Amino acid sequence: MTTRKPLRRVLLKLSGEAFSDRSVSGGIDPTIVSTVATEVAQLVAEHGTEVGVVVGGGNIFRGNSPGAAGMDRSSADHMGMLATVINALALQDAMEKAGVQTRVQTAISMQEVAEPYIRRRAIRHLEKGRVVIFAAGLGVPYFTTDTTAAQRALEIGAEAILKATKVDGVYDRDPALHDDATRYDEIDFMAVLNQGLRVMDATAISLCMDNDLPIVVFDMLTSGNITRVVTGEPVGTLVHTA
Questions:
Q1: Rounded to two decimals, what is the model's pTM?
Q2: What is the Cβ-side half-sphere exposure of residue 43, based on CA atoms within 13 angstroms?
């Protein structure tokens, strides 16, 4: 088994569904957002970890969702990108209320509400202890926020992607449907692709595999898990190069 080490700079990937308010159709659950913000703020304050965040928009709109049926894919994807900006601004507000300076950078220009994505500026923010939230995907259609997370993690020199989900790792089959599903403590990238496991999309997995960027998949709803992963505890599933 691979020995995990403490991480200095990470990219936290949060799905839009993770922010979803189950009491209504879609929307944002402020309790979940506040919980994530508090944990990240504590991580920055106590451990000095540099944190970039990519947030999805699936709780509001996704370009390949049934709600986009019949719509031009490029237009639908751009709507999905704007949905990620809404989530990013909600997270920024919660982060700053938790006491950590935060910047939102977007791949689509909207200077009245966020900075444009500039790699060197993002790195400087991280070095100064600010959390940087990357929104609007890559700014182009046909790419998911999973791929955005891999791309931004590589650009900022993150040591790992932390994939925060509502399950406690990667399973050989859907644990919600199969009681005998087996969780992996670790698995290599090629096995993920060959088995079609839903860790991240194939483009993101390939980017991480080609650049030897590990992914840790863990349960975001368990208090303290983000810190446990960053400090090197064997939480969740480690996806890495064989």
A1: 0.93
A2: 28
